[in-house]
């Protein structure tokens, strides 16, 4: 079977993403229900943030973090010790030819979220964001008015138009055409 050369190096395929999500759901379900016959692992609350699958779907890397972020080394020891049983339990819920080999890595997205919040709370960044939110400048309170156009549309004479309420281009064109025919 030939490979699509344009997709090499461009990230995971749709199948990899779909299988990774199915594995993530199944793994988190197995860990939350306590299907593993290890009481130490069943006592831990583990969050499965993401699962990345190799292109051949034989290796699945699960990004996990313990609740509260404490006891990471104990969590990895327990997961490594029960890797075979987790693989067997995952295989029951998957329609794949081969059950993928499980690898576990620390999920650092929560740490990155904290860093992002810290950056956004910095005074210099907030000042810069405040300046950006003021763009574009506020509209004029009173826009200049053309008496020729306003006299036609406003029976009481020219009125100051607020920003965004100018007569449409078609209305101005209709007015220009009607005045041309009257004067000719």
Structural account:
With 184 residues, the protein is mainly α. Helix content is 49%, strand content 12%. The protein has helices at residues 14-33, 39-43, 72-81, 83-93, 109-120, 123-133, 147-153, 169-183; strands at residues 46-53, 59-66, 101-106. A three-stranded mixed sheet has the order 1-2-3. The longest helix is centred in the N-terminal third of the chain and has 20 residues, at 14-33. The radius of gyration is 32 Å and the shape is flat. 12% of the residues are buried. The model has no long low-confidence stretch (mean pLDDT 77).
Q: Biggest β-sheet, characterized? A: 3 strands, mixed
What oligomeric state do these chains adopt? single chain
Termini separation comes to 77 Å
Helix-residue proportion: 40-55%
Shape: flat
**In terms of per-residue confidence, which ranges show pLDDT below 50 for 5 or more consecutive residues?**
none
Task: Tell me the series of helices and strands, N- to C-terminal.
Answer: HHEEHHEHHHH
Q: Strands of the largest sheet, in order across it?
A: 1-2-3
Number of strands: 3
- Rg to the nearest angstrom? 32 Å
* Beta-strand content bin: 5-15%
Class from helix and strand fractions: mainly alpha
């Amino acid at each position: 079977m030939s490979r699509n050369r344009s997709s090499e190096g461009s990230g995971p395929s749709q199948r990899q993403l779909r299988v990774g999500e199915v594995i993530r759901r199944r793994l988190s379900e197995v860990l939350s229900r306590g299907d593993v016959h290890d009481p130490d692992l069943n006592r831990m609350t583990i969050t499965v943030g993401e699962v990345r699958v190799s292109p051949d779907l034989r290796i699945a890397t699960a990004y996990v973090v313990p609740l509260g972020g404490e006891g990471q080394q104990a969590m990895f020891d327990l997961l490594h010790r029960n890797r075979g049983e987790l693989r067997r339990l995952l295989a029951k819920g998957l329609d794949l030819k081969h059950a993928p080999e499980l690898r576990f890595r620390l999920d650092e997205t929560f740490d990155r979220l904290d860093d992002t919040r810290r950056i956004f709370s910095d005074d210099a960044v907030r000042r810069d964001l405040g300046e950006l939110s003021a763009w574009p400048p506020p509209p004029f309170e009173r826009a200049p008015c053309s008496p020729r156009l306003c006299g036609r549309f406003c029976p009481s004479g020219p009125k100051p138009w607020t920003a965004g309420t100018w007569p449409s281009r078609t209305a101005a064109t209709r007015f220009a055409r009607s005045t041309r025919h009257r004067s000719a």
